[in-house]
């Protein structure tokens, strides 16, 4: 039998999916064991049990000085920056994408500009943002917006252009104005794509957020990681990394569920 | 003056002629089938009738009106595919034929209720009331085209344009769709243009069958000349011409002949 025709049964599929996770855990545990055996004070690969203890401490115990639980404070600060930036980007890209996709006049006006804009490396603009917007929240949110909006805009404009011409003609023969075509034909069909775009760009958004927080911040998940790096606190860093990964995973899952619930027609053909 | 007037229409893309010198008169209520080889400009002609494109030369008018610059409610259309909105349910697709004509795109309150009732009546008429809540993607090809025709007719266009509407359907469904379309036409008396690849279908449904072809052919540059209407057939009465000529020209009726008495006389 050819390899391309060989698919796993359900239990085997679950087992195969678990293999990489288990392998990484075992490799880490073994490496940590070896280093700790050589030097019990080693900080580079803390034992899994140490990480667990640190995690429990970080999630439940308050800061000695202020009494606040820093991890939750960091999470709140980072998530509000991230979601704020993503929400602004999504709204901007939706409006510009629809206008560029539907109106040839605006396509001529903006598509070249957006294409050039999306080539600017956003992180190179970070110093400018800090100079212009200061070190507060604004510059971090603006970095996320600048980082992901051009890509989302281009993709959404393309999606609008991908709507079959027949549908636009049909809507016109039913008497639809440009506004009605935008609101009732184009918008409902690009909204699922908008959510897919948000899911795709969340990774970049995290990257820009953590980069901005690493450079200048007083609170935030990225800030904390780079802060404790000075003390080689690998257990704290790893806890934060796992926590960020979990947050990203949950956000992605929530968006997927939203897409399924909100756009039942997408799956009607399946 | 005829209902639809096409006068010396030319269309070219980037210097390549697609159709040339097309002149046509169609009376209200006629069903015109358009046939021809692939790439001979049948669909281009339909798009011109739809005002989706504007000809480089010539005019097309409906009922003596102005030359249209963009598609509108006057001219309904059904394409081979993508004719219904995938994000609307079957009923919403029919309601959209009324709702899209408003300023906001939505109907509210009493207007919405009555529109839904009318939509349900139309769905019952086209045999789709049992799937009113479903999305088009879950319907068969024949059902989708029935929905597309129902949607187009709900907007009450003066001309219905069909671009190979049954091209993607299996033969059995196709025959059902022919009956369906024939019935609807008997009810609405609408003027219909249909582009088809299927000659049998074109003659079965049409009152007139137009053939598009290139009358001029340059062997060095096949794209130089466009196609035009090269033949026209009267497809009424099973394609047999002159079946009603006596109604039109009563003077041609044979006169009552005198009794052939002389023949009976002995010589």
From TrEMBL, chain A:
Span of domain ABC transmembrane type-1: 79-255
Keywords: Cell membrane, Membrane, Transmembrane, Transmembrane helix, Transport
Cellular localization per UniProt: Cell membrane
Keyword Cell membrane: yes
Principal cellular location given in the protein's record: membrane
Membrane topology: Multi-pass membrane protein
Superkingdom assignment: Bacteria
Classification via InterPro entries: MetI-like, MetI-like_sf
Cellular-component GO terms for this entry: plasma membrane
Positions of transmembrane segments: 12-30, 82-103, 110-135, 205-226, 232-255
Gene Ontology biological process terms, A to Z: cellular response to sulfur starvation; transmembrane transport
Family: Belongs to the binding-protein-dependent transport system permease family.
The protein's name in its UniProt record: NitT/TauT family transport system permease protein
Organism: Poseidonocella pacifica
UniProtKB/TrEMBL annotation, chain B:
A molecular function (GO) term: ATP hydrolysis activity
Coiled coil location: none
Keyword entries, A-Z: ATP-binding, Nucleotide-binding, Transport
Top-level taxon: Bacteria
PROSITE patterns xref list: ABC_TRANSPORTER_1, ABC_TRANSPORTER_2
InterPro entries for this protein: AAA+_ATPase, ABC_SmlMolc_Importer, ABC_transporter-like_ATP-bd, ABC_transporter-like_CS, P-loop_NTPase
Domain ABC transporter per the UniProt entry, residue ranges: 4-239
Stored Gene3D superfamilies: P-loop containing nucleotide triphosphate hydrolases
Listed name of the protein: NitT/TauT family transport system ATP-binding protein
UniProt source species: Poseidonocella pacifica
Record lineage: Bacteria, Pseudomonadati, Pseudomonadota, Alphaproteobacteria, Rhodobacterales
